[in-house]
Amino acid sequence: MALTKKQIARSIQQGTGTSLNQAFQYVETTLEIIKNTLASGEDVLVSGFGKFKVKEKNARKGRNPATGESMMLKSRKVLMFQCSGKLREKVNG
User: Tens digits of per-residue pLDDT, 7-34?
Assistant: First the structure.
């Protein structure tokens, strides 16, 4: 099961003693800051966690897997995440 914003807010509430609504607002505000920063083309570095960055992908030739027809794929932006060494160690035990 995935961790949800509501579960994160509950953890913040328990850790800080704030109301659930206020904790949820903290989560929403933090995520909005991250989204706006990435949308502007800047990277987001969270020390001890990892780095979010937007990478430009050039247009390229591809094919439709259902029909085998060749086509041009448009250039686009993709979101990438590179975890920190500390997070990698924690995940791998």
Answer: 999 999 999 999 999 999 999 999 999 9
User: Using CA atoms, how far apart are residues 90 and 58, in angstroms rounded to an integer?
Assistant: 35
Report the distance separating Cα 58 and Cα 10, nearest Å.
Answer: 42
Cα(61)–Cα(52) distance, rounded to whole angstroms? 27
Parent domain of 75: 45-93
User: Would you give the end-to-end CA distance of the chain in angstroms?
Assistant: 20
DSSP annotation of 75 reads: P
C-alpha 8: how far from its chain's center?
15
Instruction: Look at the alpha carbons of 63, 67, 68, 70 in this order and tell me if their dihedral is positive or negative.
Output: negative
Same domain, 63 and 36: no
